[in-house]
Each structure stands twice: as structure tokens, then as C-alpha cells.
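Contributing new records

If you add data, match the layout below exactly. Sequence lines come first and carry their own label; structure lines follow with theirs. Keep one chain per record. Anything else will be rejected by the validation script.
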Amino acid sequence: MNRNFTQSHLIFDHNLYFFSYKTWMRRCPDEYYHAHEGMEFLYIHEGEGRIILNDRLFLLKPRTLVYIQPYQVHLTRFESPRLRSVLKINLSLLYPYIRMYPSIESFVAYLEKSRAGEQVIQLSPEQDGEFTALLGSIDHTLSIVPALERKEQFLIYGTQFISYLKTRLFDVRRPPGEDCKAQNRQSHHMEKIKAWIEQHYKEHYSLEKLSADIHLSGSYLSNLFRSFAGVTITEYITRRRLDEACLLLAHTSISIDQAGKQSGFTTPAYFCRCFKKRYLLTPQQYRTAAAASKRYPESSGNAGTD
């Protein structure tokens, strides 16, 4: 297999979400080996290829839906042009908006963490019609609303999208028996940890306080979180703070130092260092780019890499 991989970089709107509907990718052969910090759904309308997930090889063909978890390394290869739709979302954006829907929140947590179920599903012609219509509706709405409303509309449709997956495609695939019960317990603990982080990420992080508040040992919490999320709690909190800083930089006029402070960073220097390490931009450069994308939203295009 040719190992001249295409270098790929996930393009989010303010690093939080991305959507592309029925876009032709004509470069072939084309191969990607990468991972994202957001959850990705890839749907093949036309064309064929292969993907390796969890050391398993899957064939991609028309009506194939793939979901890829945060930080899950995957290899995709296409020998011919393909028509595909892609939806990607950083879950720190989604979770606060789905808390009023406990079953959907639980399902998202299951998708985010569990690797027991299938991640590659072949849709029937009927499901293809429904799913393609839903994607088309998302695309139409995002194309007609003002730029400042796109995130709001994406979250509305994103919740509908997750609901469709739960009720029509994925729910019946949950693993049964004791393994499922154990995973449910672990998912419940993960939900509690993430809820605690969401409430306290702007404060000084203390594993002892987290352990005392959740009533689980610190070593268990740390090991559980790393096994599920692929990162440490500290790394996750830093990323959550950076997500918040991006929103503040893009949508408010507060100073760079205040954006860092309100996001939970202790010093401006540490904030700038973490920000540049993650985004390869300074906070000011990011703010300038965000302002330009609002003035000229079409310049961001429907770029995608898978």
C-alpha cells in the first residue's frame, strides 16, 4: 500500500463544527491517516474506498455511513473519486445543548466512548433517502441563514441528526448483557466527570476535589478518563478552556488577557502558549481570522479532508 499519506487538518468553524454536503473529492488515489478531536460522521453517496478502524478493514461504497470517535486514529483510502457528506462536531459544543434530552445525551456519550458496536453501517435504500434528505435540509438551512446564526442552526439540526441516528440506525446495535452493564456504569461515571469539568473548568483543577465531589478514587477517575477519552483530565480541561477562549475571541470584544482569564487560564503568557501550541496561531491572529470569516463567510468554503 502506498504510504505517501495526504496531510490532513480538520477545519472547524471556530474549531467547533464542520459540515459539507455532497461534495466531490476527485483526487485519487487518495489516502489519509489521521485523528480529530471532534466526532465525525462520513457518508458515501458515490464511489468506493477502504477504511481501517481499530485494526479492522472495512469497505466503503455507496450508502455507507461511518462514525469516527474523538481522537480515534483511522486510515482511509480511495482509488476513485467519491461524492461524500461529512459532519464533524467538537462535543464540548454539543453537550451543553443536549442536557435537556437525557436519552440523547446518554447516546452521545455511548457513541463517544464505546467501541463495542459497529462504526461502519450500510444503509438500505429507504434509509438512504431519509438520511440524504436530512443532510440536504441541514445544508439548505446553513446556506440561507446569516453567518451569526449558523452555529445556532447547526446545533438545532445536530440534535435532530443525533436523534435520527439513535432511533433509526444505532440504538439496536448496543451490546447486550453484562458487558453493556459495565459500559453503562463507566459511561455514567464519565458523564459525571464531564459534568463536573463543565462546572469547574474555569477554576484551579484539583483531582482531590473532583474525587471527593464524585465519590470515586482519584486513580480510578484518572485511569477511566484516559481509557475512554484518550487524554488526561488535565489535557481535556485545557482543551475545554481553549474552546471557551475561541468563542470569546470570536464573538466578544474583551481583551486577549481577559479572554484567557475568563476561560480559566492563570496567566496571559500560559494562555498564549497553550493557544499557539494547539492552533498554530496567537489569540490575536485567531481573532483577526474569525472577524474576517464573519465579513466574508464564503471564503471559508466547504473544505474537507476525508
